[in-house]
Amino acid sequence: MASLSPVTDEELTHRAQAGETEALGLLLARHEAAMRAVAISLLGYGPDAEDAVQDASLTALLRIGDVRDPASVGAWLQSVVRNTSRMRLRSVREMPGLDDLGCRYLLDRRSPHPERIIEQHAMRDWIWHAIEELAPQLRLVLMLRYFSCLSTYQEIAVACEVPVGTVRSRLNQAKGKMARLLLSADTQAHDDTSALAQESMAEAVATLQASKRGALPREISELWPRDSEIVGRLSRPGERTHPILVMRQTLEAGVLQEVRHVVASRDITIWEMDVTNPPEASNPCPPTLAWLMFRRDKKVRTLRVAFPNLE
Fold first, then answer.
1. pLDDT, tens digit, 9 for 90 and up, residues 69-93
2. Which domains does the chain have, with CATH numbers?
3. Which of 92, 106, 91 minimizes the C-alpha distance to 59?
């Protein structure tokens, strides 16, 4: 029996704009790798980039109706991440993603009651269901922040009798959990994305194992063709450097890597790694890093290695 063609971005966007949260969840899962790549390129690999992707996911929930060209929703999602990341870089005041890109957008509709605006939103049922899934402490700060007159960090801190830092931490946890709920909406619809991630995880493990042996099997060699290039901090200025050469040099220095997480799309893949340094290392690698791979015809054309707080 012939397999069904995957649903297009255009169709998923129209369904999301009609209030189908599962469609938006699949869009976010499909484009998560590209969104992460944008965040990492601006913020470095680490929690700031993760927060930016989470903020952008929730912003997409509130602003999916802004998309003018549904077939180009991937570019729109990347622009949301880019704006969120840039705000984090230049922010000197409170500016969580939902505040500036979400709730303020909704408040422009000039209703005196933010909760009524949310109630009119096509995805209001999902929003409140997700809030109910939060632990009571997280639910409280989120509801105060976005649905009450006690909306500043200081006011929430006084109301909850906790430090301002705790309010920030709980809000970040609450937004992260809501973003993960959105990304996991309708598990069956994510089968195509999950299959890509599983395939890429196998590629990552095979690549590391093959590089340790010093010989790449044919299927891994095809993943890293001759015109593959590593760019960024690990490249050699003025010349093209093949990723396999850097892998070998890293191993010779005694640095070992193990795959911890994979995010994959058809043209961008991110392998997140745990790093073990040799005991005698004078300039050790950070304990985690990420490989950002840009593909064409399933082959890696460009690799950038991102380090936490270094880019």
1. 999 999 999 999 999 899 888 753 4
2. 9-185 (no CATH), 190-306 (3.10.450.50)
3. 106
